[in-house]
Structures are given as structure tokens and as C-alpha cells.
Specification:
Number of strands: 0
Distance between the termini: 92 Å
Order of helices and strands: HHHHH
Structural class: mainly alpha
Largest sheet: none
Radius of gyration: 28 Å
């Protein structure tokens, strides 16, 4: 028999021995004897929740996240060239795994993990594109910025005396 996480024998006093695994399945690790077990009082109610209820809860959570994202986008000035381009390109990168999942088949596992998820690909693309366009793109003039003041007279620069 093998050893548990802390080097103790794989058979604890209150647990059955870890037996052989079916072919093709990785070896089962015994529970950590130093860690408190999650009892049936927690796992049974969670397992009793019907799949449609879990799916509906997930759908509601994603809808709330999408609504929050739309709210954030509505506060941005997308008429400025680089902001609109960043949002459009990031959206395209995020939709690629949905419409062309075979596109990432030749990539390493870590890259498929990152780019195979639309949310992860979109977020990574948005961060990278915003950083690149923030450095290289034209600077946005904010119409709500306060006019510069003359430090000597205290009047606005360019105003009539």
C-alpha cells in the first residue's frame, strides 16, 4: 500500500483501504488524515440539487456578469478610435473558441487552456490590446477636464482679460 499525503499508511482507522483502480484511471489518493473530512451533511444536500437548477443558477450568474460588463462599457467613450478597436478585437478573440474551437488544436496544452476559454481569451486580449494602444495610440482628449489656469494671475489660460 502507498502512503498518504503526510507519510502515514494509506489505511486510516476509520477508512477502507485504497484498492486497485479500473484500467485507464489514475491512482486514487487517500484522504488526508490530518484534514477534517467533508461529511455527508454537506455533500448530500449539494448532490441533491437538480441539474436544471444548477444550470439556471449558472445562467443567471453569467447574465449578471454580462450586464455588469455592459454597464462598464457604457461608461467608456467608444467613439475614440482606440477604445472601440480594443473592444471589437477583444470580442473577436473571445468568440474564436466558440466559433472555431479546432483553431487551437495544434497549440500546447497550456495555450489551449488559456485560449480555449472565450472568457480567458477575451480578458487577456483586452488587457494586452489596451496596454499596446494606450502606449502607441493617439491620446484621448477629455472634454470634461478643467481648463489650465495661469499660475500668476489665477485666470484661465486663453481667456480674455
Amino acid at each position: 500500500m502507498g502512503a498518504s499525503w503526510h507519510g502515514a499508511p494509506a489505511v486510516a482507522a476509520d477508512r477502507a483501504p485504497v484498492g486497485p483502480n479500473p484500467p485507464g484511471r489514475p491512482a486514487r489518493q487517500p484522504a488526508c488524515p490530518a484534514c477534517p473530512p467533508v461529511g455527508p451533511s454537506v455533500s448530500r444536500p449539494l448532490a441533491a440539487v437538480p441539474e436544471p437548477v444548477v444550470g439556471a443558477a449558472g445562467l443567471i450568474i453569467y447574465a449578471v456578469i454580462a450586464t455588469t460588463g455592459f454597464g462598464m462599457l457604457s461608461r467608456e467613450n467608444l467613439s475614440h478610435g482606440t477604445n472601440g478597436i480594443v473592444v471589437a478585437l477583444a470580442l473577436c478573440v473571445g468568440l474564436l473558441p466558440v466559433f472555431a474551437p479546432e483553431m487551437y488544436a495544434g497549440l500546447p496544452v497550456w495555450a489551449r487552456t488559456v485560449f480555449g476559454s472565450g472568457v480567458a481569451a477575451w480578458a487577456l486580449a483586452a488587457v494586452v490590446l489596451a496596454a499596446v494602444f494606450g502606449r502607441l495610440g493617439p491620446k484621448e482628449e477629455k472634454p470634461w477636464a478643467e481648463p489650465a489656469k495661469d499660475p500668476v494671475a489665477g485666470a484661465e489660460v486663453g481667456s480674455a482679460p
